[in-house]
Design goal:
- The structure is a single chain.
- The protein is an alpha+beta fold.
- It contains four helices and six strands.
- A six-stranded antiparallel sheet has the order 4-5-3-2-1-6, covered by helices on one side.
- The radius of gyration is 15 Å and the shape is globular.
- About 10% of the residues have low confidence.
C-alpha cells in the first residue's frame, strides 16, 4: 500500500509542474525501475515535452507489480484517485490491470488546459499545499524538472 501511495504522489507531483521561458525545445525522457521490500517491481516512464524551456506536456506511464492476492484492493485504491483526476481539465488518465499482478496507469497532462484550482477541488483533502518542493514554484524549467526527477532516482536523457 505504501508503494502505491508513493507512486501516486509521484504522479501528482508531475501535475503541479509549470514552466518558464528560454530558447530550448524538445522532449525529455526519464525512467525509473524500483523493487519494493516484497520483491515487486515498479517501472515508471516519464516523457516531458517542452518549448522555450517551459514544460508544456507530461506523460507518465507506470506499471506496478503487486501481490496477486491484493491486486483488486490496490486497483480500487488507485482507481478512486484516478477517477478524481479525470475531472481535472488538462489531465487524461487511463489505467488497467495487466495479468493477475500488475496495474498499468498512463497519465497525460496538458499545461495549456490545466488549472491548479481544478486539481485542488478534484482531490479535496488528498491535495496538500504544505509540501516544499520544486512543484510549488510558479515556473519550472526543463532543467529543474530533470534535476528534480534525477534526485528522485530517475535516469533522464
Amino acid at each position: 500500500m505504501k508503494k502505491f501511495l508513493v507512486v501516486t504522489l509521484s504522479i501528482l507531483s508531475c501535475i503541479l509542474l509549470v514552466g518558464c521561458t528560454n530558447t530550448k525545445s524538445g522532449t525529455l525522457n526519464c525512467t525509473k525501475t524500483s523493487t519494493d521490500e516484497d520483491g515487486y517491481k515498479t517501472e515508471e516512464i516519464l516523457k516531458a515535452t517542452y518549448e522555450n524551456n517551459k514544460v508544456i506536456k507530461v506523460e507518465e506511464t507506470s506499471i506496478e507489480e503487486t501481490d496477486p492476492d491484493f491486486i483488486n484492493f490496490s486497483y480500487v485504491i488507485l482507481s478512486g484517485i484516478f477517477e478524481k483526476l479525470k475531472n481535472v481539465d488538462g489531465i487524461n488518465v487511463d489505467y488497467s490491470k495487466i495479468d493477475n499482478n500488475k496495474i498499468k496507469s498512463v497519465m497525460k497532462i496538458d499545461y495549456s488546459k490545466f488549472k491548479i484550482e481544478s486539481l485542488k477541488e478534484a482531490l479535496g483533502d488528498l491535495y496538500s499545499d504544505d509540501s516544499n518542493t520544486i512543484y510549488k514554484k510558479a515556473n519550472v524549467n526543463i532543467t529543474d524538472f530533470k534535476q528534480e526527477y534525477e534526485k528522485n532516482g530517475y535516469t533522464c536523457n
